[in-house]
Amino acid sequence: MSLELLLIPVGIAAVAAIREARSTDLCEKCKTTRIKDAQLLQDALRAMGATQLSVAEGRITGNSPYGRITFQRIGEVFLGRVDNAAEEVTGNMLASLDMSVGALLQQRTVDSLHARAAELGMVLVSQTAANGEVQLVFEQAT
Length: 142
Fold this sequence. Notes:
The protein is an alpha+beta fold. The chain contains 3 helices and 7 strands.
C-alpha cells in the first residue's frame, strides 16, 4: 500500500473539518432533536402552529407560537431554537415539537394499518384512543 493512497483520504477529511469549523451556517444556541426527516419536521411544525416556513440548504425557519424559529441539519439530525429567546423557551418549543412529531407518526401508523387491513380483506371493528395510545381491532370480512 502506497503512502499517497493513505494521505488522500486524510487530506479530504482535513479539508472537510476545516470547512465545517469555519462555517457560519451552524445553528448557534440550538438544541438537538431526534428528527432526521425534513418533511416530518415541517409537518410537525405546521401541526403545532408554525407559519411562513422557509426551507433552504438544510435550514428551516419560520414563525411559531413561541416566536421566530430556526432549525439546521447538522449531521443526520436537526438542531433547533427559538431565535432571541431564553433556553427555557427553546426547551418548551422542542417539547411541544416532540409531542407533535409523536402524534403525526402515530397517525401515519394508524393510516398504514387501515390500508394494510383493507388489502388483507379485514374490516375495522373498533378504534379507541386514550392516554396517547390507539387500539385497533380488525376482523376478517365475511
